[in-house]
UniProtKB/TrEMBL annotation:
Keywords, alphabetical: Acyltransferase, Transferase
ChsH2 rubredoxin-like zinc ribbon domain segment(s): 346-373
Domain (ChsH2 C-terminal OB-fold): residue spans on this chain: 383-438
Protein name: Hydroxymethylglutaryl-CoA synthase
Annotated InterPro entries: Aminotrans_II_pyridoxalP_BS, ChsH2_C, ChsH2_Znr, NA-bd_OB-fold, Thioester_dehydratase-like, Thiolase-like
Pfam family, one: zf-ChsH2
EC number: 2.3.3.10
Organism field: Patulibacter medicamentivorans
Length: 475
């Protein structure tokens, strides 16, 4: 069998009530909410978080890393390399970007499926203030590890693609907002393509009707119309509460569908963008290995509201007065390259004689004095406890105040770093934190990526009815 070995999704812990847009501007908005990447998040950092959640398979050794987004942090530089470094992948693992269009997600999935690679899809969706894209967009990421054999949790049993050239959605380089053609034109062009791709994928597998269907398209009316043709099998539980995630929307929906699917059931994943692409998956008994507590529903339940002014500030639409400290300066490339394992992988060193953990890594042990007797050890997946903290209301930040915490890691090691995704008034000694990969700041066109701590928050216990009710209300 060839197919998906493991998967994961990441949704930021912030959401914007769409009604707040109309309340502020007198136009736009709508019902429901949209997910919002934090001030220190971008498509690269969210891709890392999604990929970390996809490491629950029997082994995590992708042959390649394929990254897709419509909002790359860099142009003329491979963004997948930073993801590669943060995951600690071997140097021989090929990394590549698929960028600029929503359909790039399909390119990443096909490439990863071909060689047993890791496909990571991430997006930050923008639009002019008050526009449908602003209210209807959303931010998030998904990752899929492909392979073969008994570890496959969802076998690929059918696939089809249809390509057609017409002008429906576009954005020229340098623009932040996309333009769209009249809605009826796109509907007329897309519907037959979607139907053809779906029928061909189902016919290839000899399946008349799939058990689960996910449909993703930046053309909302197309997605709703196609989904309606499959009845109850197709329900987008994501869009009403998180928005359309662009290149990541199909992936996050697919993660949600696989979390609900049972062995033997089929899942049709249909992307309608610059053509139509369909994957038909059959779930295997190995799906029983999927972890609990990290699903799309679990993450949506943890989201906290942000106001519209904060949203605009984080997205660069509102240039607010920063705290009165000097602006940050870009980091230097040579020292960053020398310390890549520490900077991107959060790799410390443990003394082989006394087992003392050093963060950052050291050559000389602070405990027994041994020299060059260290073992590299990553703390990226290790939780810790807040030993002390400080709140700085003057440090430069898009989201002041800045909270710095000293973390005592489980198993040894102490490190002071910034706290993110937390309420400064709720920080307390003894609080539990986990590490997350973030963009510290950007200066002179250079993004400074590193690790921050964030509060460990338990997801509500199996509280899907509340989310389902909210989703049904919006639908």
């Amino acid at each position: 069998m060839n197919g998906i070995v493991s998967y994961g999704a990441y949704l930021p812990r912030h959401r914007l009530d769409r009604a707040a847009i109309r309340k502020t501007l007198g136009q736009g908005g709508g019902r429901g909410t949209r997910s919002v990447a934090g001030y220190d998040e971008d498509t690269t950092s969210m891709a890392v978080e999604a990929a970390r959640r996809a490491r629950w398979g029997a082994s995590f050794a992708p042959a390649s890393l394929q990254f897709a987004t419509t909002a790359p942090a860099y142009a003329d530089k491979t963004n997948a390399n930073a993801i590669h470094a943060a995951l600690g992948l071997a140097p021989e693992v090929f990394a590549d970007d698929h960028a600029s269009a929503v359909r790039s997600a399909i390119g990443a999935l096909r490439a990863a499926a071909a060689d047993g690679g890791l496909a990571v899809l991430a997006d930050v969706r923008l639009g002019r203030p008050g526009s449908a894209d602003e209210a209807g967009g959303g931010d998030g990421a998904a990752a899929f590890l492909f392979g073969s054999g008994d570890d496959v949790v969802a076998e690929i049993v059918g696939r089809a693609s249809v390509t057609a050239e017409f002008l429906d959605r576009w954005r020229t380089p340098g623009q932040t907002a996309s333009s769209t053609w009249e809605e009826r034109f796109g509907l007329g062009e897309y519907l037959p393509l979607a139907q053809q791709a779906a029928q061909r994928a189902l016919a290839a597998a000899g399946v008349e009707r799939p058990d689960h269907v996910v449909v993703a398209s930046s053309h909302g009316r197309v997605a709703r119309t196609v989904a309606k043709s499959f009845g109850d099998a197709a329900t987008d539980r994501l869009e009403p509460v998180a928005g359309n995630l662009g290149a990541a929307h199909l992936g996050v929906q697919l993660v949600d569908a696989l979390d609900r699917a049972q062995p033997g059931e089929t899942v049709l994943a249909l992307s309608v963008a610059d053509g139509a692409d369909a994957f038909l998956l059959r779930v295997t008994d190995a799906i029983a290995r999927r972890p609990s507590g990290q699903g799309v529903v679990d993450q949506l339940a943890l989201a906290a509201d942000v106001d519209y002014a904060t949203f605009l500030t984080w997205r660069g639409g509102l240039d607010r007065e920063p705290p009165r400290r000097p602006d940050p300066v870009r980091y230097e490339a040579p020292p960053a390259a020398r310390a890549a394992a520490w900077k991107f992988g959060f790799v410390g060193s443990r003394c082989q004689q006394c087992e003392r953990m050093h963060v950052p890594p050291q050559r000389v042990c602070a405990g027994c004095g041994a020299t060059d007797l260290m073992t590299a050890e990553s703390l990226a997946d290790v939780e810790g406890t807040i030993a002390t903290y400080a709140v700085d209301r003057l440090a430069y930040s898009l989201s002041p105040p800045t909270v710095t915490v000293a973390v005592d890691f489980d198993g040894g090691g102490r490190f002071s770093c910034e706290l993110t995704d937390g309420d400064p008034s709720a920080v307390a000694v003894g609080g539990r934190v986990e590490m997350t990969f973030r963009r510290m700041y950007s200066a002179q066109g250079v993004h400074n990526y590193f690790w921050k701590a964030r509060p460990v928050v338990a997801a509500p216990t199996a509280d899907e009815p509340a989310l389902a009710a909210a989703t049904a209300k919006e639908l």
